[in-house]
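Appendix B. Raw example, untouched.
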Amino acid sequence: MNKQKLIAGTKGYLTITAAVVLMDIGTYFFKFPNHFSFGGVSGLSVVLSEVQTGLSASQVNLIINMLLLVIGFAILGRDFGMKTAYVTVVSSVLLNIFEAICPMEETLTDQSMLEMIFAIMLAAASSALLFYEEASGGGTDIIAMIVKKYSTMNISTALMVVDAVIVAVSFLVFDMETGLFSICGLVAKTLFIDGALERLKLCKYVTVVCNEPEPICDYIRDALHRGATLYQAEGLYSHQHKTVILCALDRKQAVLLQRYIHRVEDTAFLIITKSSEIIGKGFYEGT
């Protein structure tokens, strides 16, 4: 069990690290140079760095993230706080490394719309991965998690509400074009996060009607490391006694089970249903 927890924890932090890299690439190479501020501390950093603070966007990003991290620890708990602390430190260090080795004096291209698309896609994919791992990118993500905890909003809606304030400020600091780009970016980012989270949480609910349940149950338990529920049933036409197996699996496991059943009992009746979310041990354990 400890080994499984270690493997799961390692995979979780590798996923979080990959999400941080995506987030910082989108932030530094696309968001900062274009003054896009469709939410997040990185967006707020863009706004504040333009005001006479004497600090770069990366430095402002680090300061605000550290302040909000303390709030996250206090309200959302130690496990969330540790993951978010890891994200905050790695992200801020990586941004400063980018700033040192690859200064951005101008945008990568002269195509603002193209760069906004990449900024949105990278940021949204990163946020979805972090939320799935019960972590966050720090900053306004922490505020959104707090709003979600004490309201009925889902995480993407809560994040949009929080980030809308920053987008509104961008109209005052930058020009109308930048503000309108930021609004489009915020809406697109919210929709992208919703879609990505639903895809990540997608599982399969499998119903098997068979004559010989033992081999199938052994495979589910020993090879797939899942549980199942069994009950006895009777066929409507044949009146033969059947065993019904109910099992929740991830997408890869559902394919493996389907192949195995086809080999051992090709007369079994198999129903595979998509489930947008399964909450419980071995699956998504968020609230």
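End of appendix B.
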